[in-house]
Design a protein that fits this description.
alpha/beta, six-stranded mixed β-sheet, 6 strands, globular
């Protein structure tokens, strides 16, 4: 009887995940043919997210190319680590303690301690942008999540040795972008992240539910909560989201203008797909038929 109950539970989880709508669109080319599929990614998800709904998986299967922000499954880790150290670690005797406000340093130490994985002393050589990302990752790990289990990674694993993988950006580009903000902007970013730490779990669960329902409006609301009322952070989010939406869309336009019968399955952060100025909005305004599925 116990084994039957476990089996029924597994089947229930399987069917529930397969019925999730997801933030998923298909885009037709100028001839009215399905050409590009757009899937908004949550970069870290629980195991029970899979399988995704059948239309998403079959759209991937019939596509010739997988397109991601950065091919994390095929990067030169030595070079990435070297660049991260070069751009993300202090030199010349500087530390977080010497470079950020004392009260922020204290609060950051408290949040790091809660993760049970690292202390402020061990993290003291990191610049604000790097410790901000590290804190978020540690909090997700404390929630029991596997950082290698995101939607983009799911498809990268499926595509290995089976499909050609294209990049909208690269890991190096993303490191250069994050490290390129002024010291003041990095500190504001860190301050905001520390202040929002207590809401991390609720925000993550909210984003996950919005994704499952295919609720773009709710996803926009959750993402915007991070910087609404924080005008100092607007330039940062303009660069992290708005500017990148434009450059990503430029690449997607080349796929739509491809005269062959090749199809492209594009997976990028959900925040890039939605809202005014998002990839879906830009493509629609350029006259392409974009349909949420």
């Amino acid at each position: 009887m116990k084994r039957i109950i476990v089996l029924l539970l597994v089947i229930t989880i399987y069917l529930s995940a397969a019925n999730d709508k997801g933030l998923f669109w298909k885009v037709k080319d100028v001839n009215g043919n399905d050409k590009v599929f757009l899937l908004g990614s949550v970069h870290v998800v629980p195991d029970d997210m899979y399988p995704l709904k059948e239309e998403i998986e079959t759209s991937y299967e019939k596509s010739d190319f997988l397109v991601v922000e950065a091919d994390a499954a095929n990067i030169d880790m030595a070079k990435v680590q070297q660049l991260t150290i070069q751009k993300g670690m202090y030199a010349g005797g500087k530390t977080l303690k010497s470079e950020i406000p004392e009260d922020l340093y204290k609060k950051l130490g408290e949040e790091l301690k809660k993760t049970g994985m690292i202390t402020i002393e061990l993290a003291g050589g990191m610049k604000p942008w790097l410790i901000t990302l590290t804190l978020a990752q540690l909090q997700l790990m404390k929630m029991g999540l596997n950082l290698e289990n995101g939607i983009d990674m799911h498809f990268l694993k499926l595509a290995k040795d089976k499909k050609k993988i294209l990049e909208l950006e690269s890991a190096a580009f993303q490191i250069e972008l994050l490290s390129g903000f002024s010291d003041e902007m990095q500190i504001e970013f860190l301050k905001s992240s520390v202040e929002e730490s207590s809401n991390m779990k609720d925000k993550f669960n909210g984003m996950l539910e919005a994704w499952k329902k295919g609720d773009a409006k709710e996803m926009v609301k959750i993402i915007k909560e991070e910087y609404v009322g924080k005008p100092k952070l607007k330039p940062l989010y303009d660069k992290l989201i708005g500017d990148r939406n434009v450059t990503m869309t430029d690449k997607i336009l080349t796929y739509l203008n491809d005269k062959t019968d090749k199809k492209y399955f594009v997976v990028a952060g959900a925040g890039h797909m939605i809202d005014k100025g998002g990839i879906v909005d830009i493509l629609s305004k350029k006259g392409f038929k974009v349909e949420q599925r």
